[in-house]
Amino acid sequence: MTIDKQDIKAQGPLNVVACIDASESALGVCDYAAWASQRMQVPLTLLHALDEEKYPARTDMTGSIGLGSREQLQEDLVNLDRERSKLALKHGHHLLDEAEKRVLASGVGSVTKRQRHNNLANSLVDLEPESRLFVLGLQGESSTAVGRHIGSQLETVIRSVHRPVLLVPDEFSAPRSAMLAFDGSSTAFRSIELLAGTPVFKGLPLHLVMVGADTEEHRSQLKRAEAALAPQGMQVQVAIRDGDVEQTLHAYQEEHNIDVLIMGAYGHSRIRQFLVGSTTTRMLETAKKPLVILR
Amino acid sequence: MLGSIQTNWFSNIRGDLLAGIVVALALIPEAIAFSIIAGVDPKVGLYASFCIAVVIAFVGGRPGMISAATGAMALLMVTLVKEHGLEYLLAATLLTGVLQIIAGYLKLGALMRFVSRSVVTGFVNALAILIFMAQMPELFHDAASWHIYPLTAAGLGIIYLFPLIPVVGRILPSPLICIVVLTGVAMYLNIDGVRTVGDMGQLPDTLPIFLWPDVPLNLETLMIILPYSTALAVVGLLESMMTATIVDDLTDTTSDRHRECKGQGIANIGSGLLGGMAGCAMIGQSIINIKSGGRTRLSTLTAGVFLLILVLVLDKWLVQIPMAALVAVMIMVSIGTFSWDSIKNLKEHPLSTNIVMVVVVVVVVSTHNLAFGVLAGVLLAALFFANKVGHYMLVSAKYDEETETRTYTVVGQVFFSSSEKFIESFDFKEAVENVVIDVSRAHFWDITAVAALDKVVVKFRREGAEVEVLGLNEASATIVDRFGVHDKPDAVERLMAH
């Protein structure tokens, strides 16, 4: 992506941003972010988003307004918010300090700690101009272990940001191989370009997997993709499998014991996704290994 | 915008539902009272409140703000209803909506930046006074029986004292208790001459139905409704923008003003088509909503839907509500809307600010049109500002014996307000050979300033002096209307530097 390169030139080194919260996944996020930042040789930013909207509002059901009601209400709300924010800030500081210790111990040179008063998606959009990769835990603070276990904000985040997002499980193990879910679309070729330009997966075996019929057209598309990646020092293997997208990708991943799955995100509109669901969402729900979502 | 459905609708479900119910209960007496002010059946205000609240919940730009039939709008419709009837009011409501949507697309909400704090305070106070004054005819009309005074007093007593009762007082809305108690008393005692809501006109008995206003579609109709619609559109947007600012401050969030303008327009069109009057955002109700814990669009929707359900279920009881109870509730609303701090602040604020605020109140109360008051306030505030900035201009003079040159150095702002002072700063009667006017550290803001400089130069020439003007290019760069502070990052620097 040429735009990306221009950004890099204009703004100096872009950071890997690790999104820290109070859940178990923060440890995994730290480790994977440290790994990515070392491989890419860029600074690491630890981000804690203070999401105020989660806090319930205080309730007063009297429904009457009297002398100076507005001023009184304003003062009450400001005081309430201040107390909450102070606590949240302190809590966040603590989380960030822990995270900083952890990533420094794993050998990252340059770490910045940041807090923002906004929800996660908006915070990341704000940081976008200075970021190259976002690292998030698959299991967020407000999600529970049962049912849909992805962090409640992941979908919004993926939809909002225009940088690659690395979604990671709680436990870290250094990735040794990666695969790209390839569908021959122009988006998929942009993903290939992006991969060719990053040192993260350099030297690792990279599988290009296409789900669909084994046709001449598909083969030639894969060839083109392979040709784009090979000069960058990647060990590319290609495969075409038929079947349900999600199951096939999972099966291939298990068969070849692949650590990181790379895919494009949300090709369809939100309304269409609401009606028919999308592969990305389903992959998010069932993922047990790191996942890279490209935009 | 991000994660909007979740955030804007379902992030605070319990608080929103409860607050919506509290607001609906408070909206019913207001909608009835405002219908009576406008001179239409209570059902017109109730349908309007339902429709506006529901529509604005989806299309508004300020989640958590309550819009419905309002006093400010009702006061503007009185003569239209009296002279031409309800159908013309509905047509005017539709046109109001169209005008507001146009305003939204033209981004006229941005004009709100010219409305200063003191104008807003004046607007709010004037609105409170108008609502209060609108209750007076009910208290002092010819047929009023003496019963209304003790009943109103009792109502106000309940409203303000009930919340002091431990536990119960914090759960039940006191205006509701006031209405229930007074209705019970009036029905039990069966007093003659106590007017009830039923005496004031029809209440809704069905769901609102789609109606095209029964007016001839011709130029004559347009000329009748256009002045009213314009005033309604302006006042509706003004109050909505001001309320949005208040809600922004209370909740520490931001709103989308242009979307709110369009939303108000769509809501009014909806209201007009369902037999309702025009409305806008309500300051008092929005404060009640926030105070009760409402934050998102869901609270506004709940208020609208619950209002209609209540009205349809309770129609037998609503007609029995004595007007005294409504008057008590409306007096509470006006007291709650009035900015009492502004009275306290009169002593601390500068005189010009106070004058602006008081002028807004006086103009509104005498014309019953909030738009005129705001216009007067904005103009006055602008004049005061021009006057203040005009003081920031200084001309210093220096005489150099050797070259027989008098040098005037102009520093500061030269424009219509300071140009006279500018001219007076030069000594034309002094006999000198050479005059240098250095304007490189001055700003010439308009044509008046340039004309003043020309005049000065001509005058010196007439006295036989050679005149040289230095730095005119820099000084007059500010005249170009779009002198782009906003499109050139270093423009502010350059402006302040020379």
From TrEMBL, chain A:
Residues 15-169, 213-295 form the UspA domain. It comes from the Bacteria. InterPro entries: Universal_stress_UspA, UspA. Belongs to the universal stress protein A family. PANTHER family: STRESS RESPONSE PROTEIN NHAX (PTHR46268), UNIVERSAL STRESS PROTEIN UP12 (PTHR46268:SF6). This is Universal stress protein family protein.
UniProtKB/TrEMBL annotation, chain B:
It is a multi-pass membrane protein. The keyword Transmembrane applies. SUPFAM superfamilies: SpoIIaa-like. Signal peptide: none annotated. This is Sulfate permease, SulP family. The keyword Transmembrane applies. The chain crosses the membrane at residues 17-40, 46-76, 88-108, 114-134, 146-165, 171-191, 225-246, 266-284, 296-314, 320-343, 355-386. It is found in: Membrane. GO terms for molecular function: secondary active sulfate transmembrane transporter activity. Its main location: membrane. Keywords: Membrane, Transmembrane, Transmembrane helix. It comes from Marinobacter excellens HL-55. Residues 395-498 form the STAS domain. GO terms for cellular component: membrane.
